Amino acid sequence: MTPLPASLRDSSVVAWRNLLNIKRNPDWLLSGTVQPIMFVLLFAFVFGGSLGGGRYREFLIAGIFVQTVAFNTSFTVIGLTNDLQKGIVDRFRALPMSRVAVLLGRTSSDLAVSLLSVVIMSLCGLLVGWRLRGDLSDVLTGYLLLLLFSFAMSWVGAFIGLISRTVEVAQSAGLLWLFPVTFISSAFVSAEAMPTPLRVFAQWNPITVNADVLRELFGNPIRVGMPPPDSWPAEHAVPYAVVSSLVIIAVFVPLSVARYRRVGSR
């Protein structure tokens, strides 16, 4: 069998094994399912009344989508570190399988978890007043771009998982950087209302751009109580969202594979 089909076959086996682990430990899904619902309800009903009511809820959901798939990198970080700590990865390395299979299997299974989270968030959003007002092709494009971003972020999680020596370290390292990156964005509030240094960072933040792309494609408000964004990323939102996700993948796939090759020396 040629290398590419063999790698895909091995990766699918590892991905299926990871999904079976989730089935046996359903509490792992709590952060990917309950947490998005909590954020939707909290921001929609606690803050929504003072930030624009129904329009804010429609603005909010895209930000919750992007935040959730970004936070789902914690599955990759903790899952990979847990396998390393228990010696399971060493067993995989002793088998005649592709070197990339463990990493691609992990990121693929976590992409499936993100897909489930997106479905749950969509249903929850519909219940609080969010609506899909774009064309069917635009809506599908929006969901595909969201999953591409999720896949890219999972490779960041894979690298962090490979450099984390314990699960406890992984739990902190997997989320510590995500909070500032997520909240210094237009996921929940308009970036244009931030101080200049934070505004510039937020405007170029892939989380901002992916959230704005979803709002545009879903036919939801781009901003609430603020003028539309006029930065370069906002004016080229779709290509910037695609390129930023591909750049993240192009950077962190080689880093993760290189680190995986040295994992035996940990």
Protein model, in words:
The structure is a single chain. The chain has 266 residues and is an all-alpha fold. It has one domain. The protein contains 13 helices and no strands. The longest helix has 28 residues, at 136-163. The protein is globular and about 60 Å long. It starts with a helix and ends in a 5-residue tail after the last helix.
Order of helices and strands: HHHHHHHHHHHHH
Provide the β-strand percentage band.
under 5%
Class derived from helix and strand content: mainly alpha
What is the number of beta strands?
0
Biggest beta-sheet profile: none
- Per the principal axes of the C-alpha atoms, what is the gross shape? globular
Give the helix level as a range of percent: over 70%
Quaternary structure of the protein = single chain
List low-confidence stretches. Answer: none
Q: What's the Cα radius of gyration?
A: 19 Å
Distance between the termini: 32 Å
- Mean pLDDT over the full residue set: 85
Number of domains: 1
The helix count comes to 13
In short:
The protein contains 13 helices and no strands.
